[in-house]
Backbone:
């Protein structure tokens, strides 16, 4: 008998018939003898409907009240799912974030979980009930309703699994697992049976949108085995867990992630002196523009060049800021390019294997693809290339590292 | 500076523009220096939408989960109203029934309020905030969400006013006060400036649908002055309060209520012996049919006749039951009539005035209207007459008692 926390997102509970299908799935697990806790999102579209109502009333609605408003979305789902479970003959009980005391800080709209009281849930499980908890929401020290920010239901599920010491946290989505790369780009892309937290984090931060980064971090921190599964078809999914040291032969590269949403900015001919990187990048950050890859190097004349990437939507604003900075610093020129993509190969196996970078660059060179930027971390190598080479690059790397098996 | 509790029903908050209008009204009162607590219903249509969702999932949804579901309706309204108040420059804070600890019993769907903790609300009021509370909902000893049943927002408002020792509880509706009778029947019907709790109860139970009976009982019990006002136009409304003993001259009759929804059943020729009324009426009650007026008298041959009224929708079932009872008791006959109406004159002044009944019967006789049944209470006289005489009877009584002033 296992204790399983399952999470179903908005699409999985997007209609009455979908909710009934989820109830069937949960009931089957429950009848098989497992203890089940379910975390759910709002029915798809509901959160946006509520936000629209708020925007009609106030351009910048009060954040505390926004949380009171949008948290009703999940509250509707928990009630309906419990009713559907009872229709399946399964005893069930729903809880809002506040009722089960998912204690958070008071950062409305992006609160962080501090503590969960598992006492009441264990009582229900011991009484043979399925427990259904509203995802994405909690309560602060003073009893105010908080939300964890969009997609926060994944985090709720992982936090519940950690607090309840669950055997596994299963995240049901519209894909049947984590793939070596996007199957729409590489037909041979293969579902991974398992992947480590670290690898998943790198994949997620590189544009793989299956899981919220925060929930993966959380799962890694509390060592909660996380399984990504499909709501719509049966299958083992992908298990995300700690590195398995017993495994003799680890694949060098687990997956290839890419991101088309970035643009590149370069400032050339700036005096190479302490504080220059801060002057350039600090001003961009202060404008709330997120900076991703950063590369700096120094030319023969001792002037520095800094290149970095931002989200394409931020390119115009970032360019204007950078022109201003360039003129302040007496820099030579500012250039920008929004026809670039970022590609990363990810794998814990890189740690113990030399020559992975060389193999990556070789594969790209063989296709005549020029590399504009390179950054590396312990388990990831990222390159920025021209956008038009994206598919070619991903396919050649997928094949070079034998990911199709 | 007064402490006022206001209640706005579903129609008054039925759209974004209506909510903004309510916010304007509340903001004006707040700026005038009053401390304001607002209780609100769900936006009109919302509760029904949620109930429909539940019915699609389960014919008889779990009552606990039903309360979790429908209580989201008011939660949406409190958040939107607070946002609208902030847009008016008024600081506001919303609370669900659970957050403000409206403690109820655990009768889901028809819970009764046991206690309200006014501490937090007083804190907000002292800090200059308007407090917006979700009507119709509470929380039981174990932290489960409960609802007070439909229309329960009036009760929430009165209970809040009692707990906070408010100066007045204002119920905003789609009418501008309590009238001497239905203005659609008597053009001369006049808005009453004031009426007693007792009179309002009698009016309400006789078909005047302005206020929930429970909320009037509650207001009377805790002596909370209640004012019925229009959401859509300005005006003093009608104040419902304790009898004003200082008033020298009290009108004998305050209003005329009537009800077209009833039907009359008569069972004749039953042996006049102890327990017979119970045998007849007990069986009807057991079938969950509500009985209203009951009249019994004894004929010369010592056989009894019992006449009573039920809701027209229950007439068929009640008739069938009564036929069975008649055959069991060896009664003479059962007759029924659904073309009747009930008319009541109501007024605390009746207590100290003789001849009110005689005046009523005289007025009806002058119009040639036959009275089928009569019942009386201390402050009310009710007659049942043929339905076709309804308008004529109400108009002649309205005039006979000088209600047009």
Residues:
């Amino acid at each position: 008998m296992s204790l399983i926390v399952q999470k179903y997102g908005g699409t999985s509970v997007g209609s009455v018939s979908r909710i009934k299908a989820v109830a069937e799935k949960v009931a089957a697990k429950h009848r098989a003898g497992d203890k089940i806790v379910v975390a759910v999102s709002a029915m798809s579209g509901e959160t946006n409907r509520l936000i629209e109502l708020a925007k009609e009333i106030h351009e910048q609605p009060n954040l505390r009240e926004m949380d009171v408003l949008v948290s009703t979305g999940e509250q509707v789902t928990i009630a309906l799912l419990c009713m559907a479970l009872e229709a399946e003959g399964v005893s069930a009980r729903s809880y809002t974030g506040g009722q089960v005391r998912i204690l958070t800080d008071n950062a409305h709209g992006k609160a962080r979980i501090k503590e969960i009281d598992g006492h009441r849930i264990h009582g229900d499980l011991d009484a043979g009930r399925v427990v259904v908890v509203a995802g994405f929401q909690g309560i602060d020290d003073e009893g105010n309703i908080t939300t964890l920010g969009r997609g926060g239901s994944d985090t709720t599920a992982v936090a519940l699994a950690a607090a309840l010491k669950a055997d596994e946290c299963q995240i049901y989505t519209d894909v049947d697992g984590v793939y070596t790369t996007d199957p729409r780009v590489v037909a041979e892309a293969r579902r991974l049976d398992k992947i480590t937290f670290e690898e998943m984090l790198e994949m997620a931060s590189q544009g793989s949108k299956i899981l919220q980064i925060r929930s993966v971090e959380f799962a890694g921190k509390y060592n909660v085995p996380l399984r990504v599964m499909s709501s719509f078809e049966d299958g083992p999914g992908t298990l995300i867990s700690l590195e398995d040291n017993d495994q003799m032969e680890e694949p060098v590269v687990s997956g290839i992630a890419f991101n088309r949403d970035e643009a590149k900015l370069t400032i050339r001919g700036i005096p190479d002196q302490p504080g220059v990187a801060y002057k350039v990048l600090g001003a961009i950050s202060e404008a709330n523009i997120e900076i991703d890859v950063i590369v700096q190097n120094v030319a023969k004349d001792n002037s520095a060049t800094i290149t970095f990437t931002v989200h394409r939507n931020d390119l115009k604003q970032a360019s204007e800021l950078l022109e201003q900075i360039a003129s302040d610093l007496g820099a030579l020129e500012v250039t920008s390019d929004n026809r670039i993509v970022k590609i990363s190969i990810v794998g814990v196996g890189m740690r113990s294997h030399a020559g992975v970078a060389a193999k990556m660059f070789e594969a790209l060179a063989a296709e005549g693809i020029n590399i504009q930027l390179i950054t590396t971390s312990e388990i990831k190598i990222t390159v920025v290339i021209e956008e038009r080479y994206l598919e070619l690059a991903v396919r050649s790397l997928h094949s070079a590292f034998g990911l199709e098996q």
Chain B has a mean pLDDT of 91. DSSP finds eleven helices and 20 strands in chain B. The interface with chain A takes residues 16, 19-20, 50, 53-54, 56-58, 61-62, 64-66, 68-69, 71-72, 75-76, 78-80, 82-84, 86-87, 92-94, 96, 98-99, 143-145 of chain B (CB under 8 Å). The two ends of chain B are 34 Å apart (CA to CA).
